Every structure is written in C-alpha cells, then in structure tokens.
Amino acid sequence: MDSRTSLTADMWAEWTSAAFETTSMVGEEIAGIVDGLSEVAEHPGEMVYSSGRLWVFRRLRFLWPEWEFTRPFEFASLLNIPRSLKGRVFFRLPAPLVEAVRNHTLLSRSARWLKGLWGSCGSLYLPKTGYYLCFHISSKQTEEKTVHLLKKKGFSPGRRRVHGKFEITLRNQQEIVDMLASFNMVRTTLLLEEKAIFRSLRNQANKLVNCDASNIRKSLEASSRQIEIARQALELSEYDDLPAVLKNLIASRLANPSMTLEELGHLQSPPVSKSTIKYRWKKISDQVMPLSQRRRGASKNTHSFSSTQQSKNEKLSAQS
Asked: What φ, ψ does residue 202 adopt, rounded to 5°?
C-alpha cells in the first residue's frame, strides 16, 4: 500500500475512534459534523443531509448516546444507507435537533467543533512536496466562522471559492501538525512528522548527489580545457622559456587527467593551495593561447601561400 494511502486510512480511523474529554464537548463536535454535511432538502419538521463519507456516520453513532439532545432519537432510524454500501448516505435530522445544532454552532469556540467540521468536509493532501489541510464548506456563514476561529487560534488560513464551495486551506506544516494535535489525533501527528523528517532527509540526499554530480562534471570540463592548453604549450617553441613551476604544473596535468585542482596542488614542490593552482593555470593560459593562435595563423598563411604557388606552377606547366 502506498504510504500516503496508509497515512490517510490511519488518519480517518483515528478521527473516528478518538475518545472525547467531556460530554459537554460532544455537542460541539456533533454540531461541527452536521455543519460540514451537504444540505439536501428541508421538509416539514426535519432537515435532510447527505455525505459519501461512511466514517462520518460511524463517528456520529459513537457520539450519539453521549449528548442529551440526541439521546431521545434512535440514530439508525435517521439514516438511509444504500444497499450496496456505496454512494451517499442520507441523514434526516428532526427540527429540535436542527435547532440544538445551530445553537451549539453559534456558541462554539473550541477545537472540538473544528474537529467535527474537518472530519465531515475536510481533507489532508500529501503531494510529492508540501502538505495541505483543507475544509470544503457549503455555507458562507460556516466558512466565516471557521476562518474567525482559525485566526483566533493563531493559524493563517487561505480562502478561495472552488466549484461552488468555500475552500479554507492551511499550508504550513507546523500549523497542520498543531491543528491535528488540537484534535487529539496523536498517532496521525507523529506519522506526519515522521513523514516530514523522511522527506527532508531524502531531499537533502538528492541535493548532495546532484551537487556531487555537478562538481564532477565541472571538474572534468576544467580538466579537459587544461589538457588542451597543456598540449598546445608543448607544441610551442617558447615552451622552454616558461617558468619551472608552470612547466611542472603542465606535466602534472598531462600525467593525471582526472585529478582535481586541489590534488594537483599536493603534487607540486612545494605543495600549494587550490587557489594558487588556479592562478598558475590562468598565467599559462594567458601566455600560451596568444602564442598558439599566432602559430596557427602563421601556419594557415604558409599553407595558403604554398597552395597559391602550387596553382601557379601547374598553370605554367600547362601553358608550356
């Protein structure tokens, strides 16, 4: 199973089965869950909601007997579950319960309401880079309350409208961890932090590998240029006039094509630093390249003169 799929499954399992601290908070969480459901229809004496998240109704069944307003109503009788156990579940809420939920929503200021809302309409996305904790809310009033609560608790939510719904997003990893911790989802928090550490180590290892590869490529390119300059220097008649330290460096490079500048420095007598080797190669290049270019130019002119003279001689031979 993919690690992201495993984390998501563990996360919703923990949300569904998490214990509650006091019965006074049960009402707030139930209100949050209901506020996150999709409103389907309003009939005389009841409101109809729906959701495709079966774990939401498992959580509601767990909380139902603990709240004084829900206890008189049989939970199973309010559900309409597809026979295939697939698709959306419809949930009828009697008018007294609708009123109780709305009152608790207005008064709620705790993380328990946010926990219920997030389980009902939220998600945690784990792409290859970054993390996103989102709420997808249908009601403008609920969206405004959610943003107000998040800001009051020190979070920095993003807001936008997507496909007719209000999306609230947390993108900061530490804020996401703090949010899950406030939901008392300890296992999910630890798994997410473990995943973040693993990602950080993997990214660091990739950067080191890429850096090493880049350094090796640059070193080989520099070595190739130096070897070409060294060979051109050996072809010059002025080679013997070069200082001994430069000639020793040229010989060292030709004998050790793959060595780094630092390693070449250790071969010199006396050993010198990498910066000194770079400086000496610049001196070699500044002296050798102009002479080499002049030599190639002279050779080209000589070849051109020889070709012209040969052409003239061939013409004279033809005339005679």
From this structure: -65, -45
